[in-house]
Specification:
GO terms for molecular function: oxidoreductase activity, acting on the CH-OH group of donors, NAD or NADP as acceptor. This protein is of the alpha/beta class and 314 residues long. It is built from nine helices and eight strands. The chain has a domain of 215 residues: NAD(P)-binding Rossmann-like Domain (Rossmann fold, 3-Layer(aba) Sandwich), CATH 3.40.50.720. 44% of the residues lie in helices and 12% in strands.
Length: 314
């Protein structure tokens, strides 16, 4: 067991070194579909991975809007980047509050008109280490799944029509995978429904999280076949992964010149407040795949799941 852990650590470290090198290679002129007029929005960006994605996108020359639920910390975070010469703006946004979303959309429309990139990073997790309480399940699902969905739906009408397509990037987790080493989902019926991408709908995803929350309330969730660690967080990210596929399918029906491409990625176990700083990779490395996806020159990629700049299975 120790040997396999060491091997996977070696493999991860090697891949992170490769990515660090890739990050130093500038985009060529024909790859750069964006300009300083290109607008990106990053939610939950006052610290950690979100802050780092803002920094990297602004470093590539985009105009980036940093959002945060807490106005004071958001203003301070944006100020740090502005003082570093980055074109970063700030607006308060609470993805759980419909009036906050509405205010944000009005402000975007008045100040910028339209946006090109939306990165959904805002999220919560109340379990650290080996804790696995489901006490805050409603808050976790409401924020990570419904909040993400609400801001996406509000922003789609404000996404620019352009030949390169607009981009939506959802920050999710391998913990939400339906199959694989990290997935401990034992509920075969749920897995089958969420894996059937042709029949998958938003209603099916909603019903899945409702079923989980009902079992939490009834105290039966432990026998429901749900993941046994970080249960509420894992279920919320499983739902976002599934919704990304539904969204990509819906958006792919838009005519040429109005396309929006939606993908999700796992940043890894990052040293941030969310992991109690117990992660094994830096925020800079964790943010990399999200930035890479937002800037992909090959815009026809949609409905996929990535980690460390590579596609992985849902």
């Amino acid at each position: 067991m120790v040997g396999s852990k060491e091997k996977s650590k070696e493999k991860r470290d090697k891949r992170l070194q490769e990515i660090s090198l890739l990050r130093t290679i500038p985009y060529s002129d024909h790859q750069r579909w964006w300009t300083s007029e290109t607008v990106a929005v990053v939610t939950g960006a006052n610290r950690g991975i979100g802050f780092e994605m803002v920094r990297q996108l602004a470093g590539h020359g985009l105009t980036v809007i940093l959002t945060s639920r807490d106005e004071n910390v958001g203003v301070e975070a944006a100020k740090i980047l502005q003082e570093g010469g980055f074109n970063v703006d700030f607006h308060r946004l609470d993805i759980l509050d419909s009036s906050s979303i509405q205010e944000f959309c009005i402000w975007i429309k008045e100040k910028y008109g339209l946006i090109d990139v939306l990165i959904n990073n805002a999220g919560v997790n109340y379990n650290v280490g080996s804790d696995n309480s489901v006490e805050f399940s409603h808050m976790v699902i409401s924020t990570n799944y419904y909040g993400t969905k609400n801001i996406i739906k509000a922003m789609i009408p404000l996404m620019r029509h352009a030949c390169q397509g607009a981009r939506i990037v959802n920050v999710t987790s391998r913990l939400g995978r339906l199959k694989g080493r990290h997935s401990k989902l034992e509920n075969e019926a749920v897995r089958a429904k969420l894996m059937d991408v042709d029949s998958l709908t938003e209603e099916i995803v909603d019903k899945t999280v409702s079923e989980f929350l009902k079992q939490v309330e009834e105290g039966t969730w432990e026998s429901g076949g749900w993941p046994h660690s970080f249960t509420d967080y894992s279920v919320s990210k499983m739902a976002v992964n599934a919704y990304t596929r539904v969204l990509a399918k819906e958006l792919s029906e838009r005519p040429e010149g109005e396309k929006i491409y939606a993908n999700c990625f796992c940043p890894g176990w990052v040293k941030t407040a969310m992991t109690g700083y117990a992660g094994n990779i830096s925020a800079e490395d964790g943010a990399d795949t999200g930035v890479w996806l937002a800037l992909l020159p090959d815009q026809a990629i949609t409905g996929k799941f990535f980690a460390e700049r590579r596609e992985i299975n849902f």
